[in-house]
Specification:
Elements: H1 2-13, H2 30-40, H3 48-61, E1 65-69, H4 72-82, E2 90-93, H5 99-107, E3 111-114, H6 126-136, E4 137-139, E5 145-147, E6 154-158, H7 169-178, E7 184-186, E8 194-195, E9 198-199, E10 206-210, E11 223-227, H8 230-239, H9 265-299, E12 302-303, E13 310-311, E14 318-320, H10 324-336, E15 342-343, E16 358-359, H11 363-369, E17 372-374
Helix pairs in contact: 2-9, 3-9, 4-5
């Protein structure tokens, strides 16, 4: 089976050479905008392309505000701080996620509460969330939700749209609203993905997107915060710019501990050019996914597919093998034949650094970890 898949992937990408998992493509105005930025000398965090990148991202996603940052982890860190995640509080992410999700929580001095995922979406399970909160959560007189056992405030819920597949946002948001917990979306991988009639990243109070080199579009390194709240927008801009007090003449004064997190104009120029071709990239990636799914149906290989009410960007096409043994065989054969593949991340509850975290039943997380394989998903000739 996997030998046939190798031939199929080589045919899709038209090469007998090495095929990476996901490489960036630069087919638009990238060089033009970069040269213009260099000529302007405004290559750091001030410049026309930063504003244009933020406005264009907000327009594309439907968010009212977008705040560009140096990377997706920084965007996630600030997204959590904006909703009140602080020292000695708790945040609920899924266990099947990239380490940046938990790192951003730790940067705030908070502790992750790791929950299981849904087998269909690969993202946070609404059922697991409700079971946990029904047992451990209570809304107290201060209006916040508290963990009855740890006596810590549950300051946010942080689902991640794994590989671009949207989580069940309506169900998760309903539970968060019931327990008065701010919803923050880890939309690092889901630019171009929609849940029902809206783009991912605008269902919560804040969200974070990544523009790392392996994402659907890239700024080299970069991220962005999305929000519909004007006050959160102003605060995000303030604390990501070292909390410098504006309009204070020649003097540099700062009113709190801030962060040097703003995206440089040089990176934003790249992002503006990439956004111009994003619709074509999403179209091509969805076409690629359809080709993979058809081949899989014909050859008995299962793929992760979007739910009927979602529209995925299919950032990373993913095979669900029959078991761990078949997963390992597939990884070995494909990589030995220069077709880059990888397993899912080691679940967060299995990492030594997270053994101080609460985690419950992880049946779906461990089942998926033993079976998932990412396969080449780069955009092709457009």
């Amino acid at each position: 089976m996997f030998e046939d898949l190798i031939y199929f992937i080589r045919d899709l990408y038209g090469t007998d050479g090495f095929i990476p998992l996901h490489s960036p493509r630069f087919i638009g105005n990238e060089k033009k905008y970069l040269l213009k930025t260099i000529d302007s000398t405004y290559v750091s965090s001030i410049g026309e392309y930063v504003d244009l990148f933020e406005n264009s991202t907000a327009e594309y996603t439907g968010a009212k505000y977008a705040i560009a940052t140096v990377n997706g982890t920084a965007a996630l860190h600030i997204s959590l701080k904006l909703v009140g995640v602080e020292n000695n509080s708790e945040v609920i992410p899924q266990s099947l996620t990239f380490i940046a999700t938990c790192n951003a929580i730790r940067y705030c001095g908070a502790t992750p509460v790791l929950l299981d995922v849904d087998r269909a979406t690969l993202g946070l399970s609404a059922k697991s969330l409700k079971l946990f909160l029904d047992e451990y959560g209570e809304v107290r007189e201060d209006g916040n939700c508290w963990n009855k056992v740890s006596n810590k405030k549950i300051a946010a819920c942080l689902p991640m749209h794994t590989f671009g597949i949207p989580v069940e946002l309506d169900a998760i948001k309903q539970i968060c609203d019931q327990y008065n917990i701010p919803l923050v979306e880890d939309a690092a991988e889901s630019l171009g993905s929609r849940y029902k009639d809206k783009h991912t990243g605008i269902y919560g109070k804040t969200a974070a997107i990544s523009f790392n080199g392996n994402k659907i579009i890239t700024t080299g390194g970069g991220g962005i915060i999305l929000t519909n709240d004007e006050q959160l927008n102003r605060r995000a801009r303030h604390i990501t710019t070292t909390a410098k007090i504006p309009h204070n003449g020649y003097f540099f004064e700062h009113d709190e501990i801030g962060f040097n997190y703003r995206l440089p104009n040089l990176n934003a120029a790249l992002g503006v050019a990439q956004l111009e071709v994003l619709p074509a990239y999403v179209k091509d990636k969805r076409k690629l996914a359809k080709q993979y799914h058809k081949w899989g149906d014909e050859h008995g290989l299962q793929f992760v597919k979007e739910l009927k009410h979602s529209k995925s960007n299919y950032w990373m096409n993913t095979v669900v093998t029959q078991n761990k043994k078949q997963r390992d065989v597939m990884l070995k054969i494909m990589n030995e034949n220069k077709i880059m593949t990888r397993p899912a991340w080691v679940p967060m509850h299995k990492l030594e650094i997270n053994q101080d975290c609460y985690f419950g039943n992880m049946t779906n997380t461990e089942w998926l970890f033993d079976r998932l394989v990412n396969i080449p998903s780069s955009t092709r000739g457009i």
